[in-house]
Design brief:
Elements: H1 2-46, H2 50-66, H3 70-86, H4 90-107, H5 110-126, H6 130-146, H7 150-166, H8 170-187, H9 190-206, H10 212-232, H11 236-252, H12 256-272, H13 276-292, H14 296-310, H15 315-332, H16 335-352, H17 355-362, H18 364-371, H19 375-386, H20 393-467, H21 471-491, H22 495-499, H23 501-515, E1 519-524, H24 533-554, E2 558-566, E3 569-576, H25 583-588, H26 592-603, E4 607-612, E5 618-625
Parallel strand pairs: 1-2
Antiparallel strand pairs: 2-3, 3-5, 4-5
Helix pairs in contact: 1-2, 1-3, 2-3, 3-4, 4-5, 4-19, 5-6, 6-7, 7-8, 7-9, 8-9, 9-10, 9-11, 10-11, 11-12, 11-13, 12-13, 13-14, 13-15, 14-15, 15-16, 19-20, 20-21, 20-26, 23-24, 24-26
Length: 630
């Protein structure tokens, strides 16, 4: 009996060994096949042969799925992410990179995990999801620092700086660019050094404040250092960018001859390189410089050249060219032509910034929260997809074992996520506040353009129609002018500076009182001296948003507004007798109105309490510390 058992075990051993050898042989063949698909796909991608690249990479990915090869599947998703990135379909690129990331984390492949984080950071940057971009670049930076890869550290510092440059947090941008610059100088990486000089110059160029002149001079210094490096390394494209930046910076200092000298040098290189979109930028800069010199003939000539160069290459510069032409024609008294150019400017502007696109920008914070998926769940789904349910009993046991390990991995990942949750929350809050500040700046800019450009031209049309006694045109123009002024007031309360905070809020309440059937009562202390200019605007917006919510949703009959100074705080009560709402439910739904109100309170370092019950009205009570900004 024992002999039979021994023979049986020996037979099973031989059979298992044979199966394992056969499996290894098949896997080896499969590896070669999949890798061949990927190599071909990447080669096609390098030649911009996108159709063939997609076919090859997809074929390799499908082949890797059939043989349950996790590493090759991960590379397939990674390469698809690169394909969609080059096609500028960044959302699908992100989806594939996330799948790749989940598998590489599971396989503990640190090098490719880094690549996924880095590429995710760049992809999110492209769709202006700056908070997500920062999160991924910081994770990539953490890996690069752990393995002490200086080049990768510098690359991530530079990318993080670029995000801060756009949000904008210029001080943080400069800190990161300077750190990256030191590393690139130590490595002797000329391309990296040149990029840092470009970004550092831009960061100082964008800064405002009372010492604006000194900052522009500092920007020019960085641009000139970069120019020397670019010329020495024969980086002509970078050279042309530095020349253009120096030229526009000199214009800011009213040094027009120096400005033109550098701008014409930049234009010459850009045209030689057939970089026509950038050439249009230089032409617009030259036009602005001539306009500042009051040489309107030359200014018009180069604005027209900018439009010519930009066609099909740079719609933003085309749009700005028409804007410059409108201003030039207005200065020369060609009002009809000025109006035509301005109309074309707005047509292009509207095509670029439709209401849907603006809404998407305003909702970035909410979209990111809803679209952000749990990394652990993705890892589970990706790895479950790797396992074939039709395998033998042995492979089924491997499946259960794998799932057990995966559960352990999921638990560890969740534990780690708790440690990073606070950091991500702070980053999220900072981004929300920066977004609100950027929106206010954009509102102010648009309001100024409406008032200074459209408003002035409508006033001119109104006067002309009055002179020729065209009453109908006068009436229509007057109505359009009132609408423009109304939109401008909504975008930025200009009376805030003229009347002060207390009177501006009173006027806002009176306007609501006139325009609605609601009965308003108010008791407002003189609070102007307790707030800075920025805080005053945020406080005004906070009151405005509370009142707007009441008018839109509350179905109330009366509203009370009390704003009182108590000790070192301004206490505000805004109360209505409307239908009320479930506060907790609306918080969970991530209501945009409530979210904006909470973010404004955070910006002012205040506290907010909302008391509301269904059919029992709503009370907004917020406390803002006095002079919370320096």
């Amino acid at each position: 009996m024992n002999k039979v058992l021994v023979y049986l075990l020996f037979f099973l051993f031989l059979n298992t060994s044979y199966a394992q050898e056969e499996k290894k042989s098949l896997e080896s063949q499969s590896n070669s096949l999949v890798k061949n698909y990927y190599f071909k796909g990447l080669d096609f991608l390098s030649k911009n042969n996108f159709d063939e690249a997609f076919k090859s990479i997809s074929s390799g990915l499908e082949a890797s799925k059939k043989t349950n090869q996790k590493d090759l599947m991960a590379f397939g998703y990674l390469h698809l992410g690169g394909y969609f990135y080059q096609k500028k379909n960044y959302q699908i690129a992100i989806e594939n990179l996330k799948k790749s990331l989940a598998i590489f984390i599971y396989l503990k492949n640190e090098k490719e995990t880094y690549n996924c984080y880095f590429k995710l950071g760049r992809s999110y940057y492209r769709i202006s999801e700056f908070d997500a971009s920062l999160v991924n670049h910081f994770k990539a930076l953490e890996i690069a620092e752990r393995i002490n890869n200086e080049k990768e550290i510098a690359e991530n510092l530079g990318r993080i700086g670029e995000v801060y440059l756009l949000t904008p947090d210029l001080i943080k941008a400069q800190i990161n660019f300077k750190k990256a610059l030191k590393i690139y100088e130590r490595l002797g990486d000329e391309q990296g050094i040149v990029g840092c000089f470009t970004n550092l110059g831009a960061s100082y160029q964008k800064q405002g404040g009372p010492n604006k002149k000194e900052l522009i001079i500092k920007a020019i210094d960085y641009f000139k250092q970069g120019l020397v490096r670019a010329k020495k390394a024969n980086l002509q494209r970078n050279e042309s960018i530095f020349l253009g930046n120096i030229g526009s910076s000199y214009r800011s200092l009213d040094k027009y001859d120096e400005s033109l000298e550098f701008l014409f040098r930049a234009l010459k290189i850009k045209v030689k390189l057939k970089n026509y979109g950038s050439a249009a930028h230089s032409c617009n800069d030259i036009s602005e410089t001539y306009s500042a010199m009051n040489n309107l003939v030359k200014a018009k000539e180069f604005a027209l050249k900018a439009i010519e160069y930009s066609k099909g290459f740079n719609i933003h510069q085309e749009r700005f060219g028409y804007y410059l032409l409108s201003k030039i024609e207005y200065k020369t008294g060609n009002f009809k032509s000025s109006h035509g150019h301005l109309k074309r400017y707005h047509q292009i502007h509207d095509s670029l910034f439709s209401l849907q696109k603006m809404a998407k920008i305003n909702d970035l914070q909410i979209q990111y929260e809803t679209e952000k998926k749990n990394l652990t769940i993705e890892a589970q789904e990706s790895n479950i997809a790797l396992l074939d349910s039709k395998n033998s009993i042995k492979n089924q046991w491997l499946l259960f074992g794998g799932l057990g390990l995966l559960s352990i991995f999921a638990f560890i990942t969740l534990q780690k996520s708790k440690n990073t949750a606070k950091k991500e929350k702070l980053l999220q809050e900072k981004f929300s506040q920066d977004l609100l500040i950027s929106q206010e700046e954009e509102r102010t800019r648009i309001a100024r353009e409406l008032h200074d450009s459209v408003g002035q031209q409508l006033t001119l049309i109104k006067r002309k129609s009055q002179n020729i006694e065209q009453q109908e045109i006068t009436k229509m123009t007057n109505k359009a002018l009132e609408e423009v002024r109304s939109i401008s007031r909504n975008l930025y309360p200009a009376l805030l500076k003229q009347l002060g905070l207390k009177e501006s809020i009173e006027q806002l309440i009176n306007e609501y009182d006139e325009q609605t059937e609601l009965f308003f009562s108010m008791d407002i202390d003189l609070i102007d001296e307790y707030f800075t200019e920025n805080t005053s605007l945020n406080f005004y917006r906070l009151v405005q948003e509370c009142l707007t919510n009441i008018v839109k949703h509350a179905k109330a009959k009366s509203v009370t507004v009390n704003i009182k100074k108590e000790d070192k705080s301004i206490i505000t009560l805004i109360s209505d007798n409307g239908k009320g709402f479930d506060v907790d439910k609306n918080k969970k739904k991530n209501s945009l109105g409530l979210k904006t109100i909470f973010e404004r309170i955070k910006i002012m370092n205040g506290n907010l309490s909302i008391n509301s019950k269904i059919n029992n009205g709503t009370n907004f009570i917020f406390s803002i510390p006095i002079k919370n900004e320096s």
